[in-house]
């Protein structure tokens, strides 16, 4: 059974990369917590979300990431210190990947109940943070993006707890399949509209897919 390997939170910081560049603000630098952490409707206690247009809110309360991806990244990037929190995630989870979780999956972790709402669309910040220009593209190409949860029931969560599947209403829409559709099959209007009709998918994704399909 999948396990919550670690829980990470972070505060907003100002970055200046490269030194002569324009300052940017982010809470992407997450650190591991100890003990139970309260998970509310929009975020974990102690966690900042600097860009509320693209992060946070009820549909993107928590970012999950697969523990099994990290050895691959360390090998591919030749970075021994590339470890948990590198992508700004809140949950690192064992025995789950984008290929094994689905939109609409409902899980219980500790006292909280969560539902997968959408894949993560990688932004430029991980690449800027690590100084790896093509990191965002690599995330899209490999499909190792992570996924967002909405919170159905608030409660405390803690590293080491089981991630227990309660319901899987849309087994046809793995996060991997959604990623592949968005990044690699941009001409498949029928599939775009089928995914947009999935009621468990975040509204922002449904709107985006509908607009993209209309342009095809």
From TrEMBL:
Residue spans crossing the bilayer: none
GO terms of molecular function: catalytic activity; molybdenum ion binding; pyridoxal phosphate binding
Residue ranges constituting the MOSC domain according to the UniProt record: 31-166
Top-level division of the source organism's lineage: Bacteria
Pfam family, one: YiiM_3-alpha
Protein name: MOSC domain-containing protein
Organism this protein belongs to: Thermoactinomyces daqus
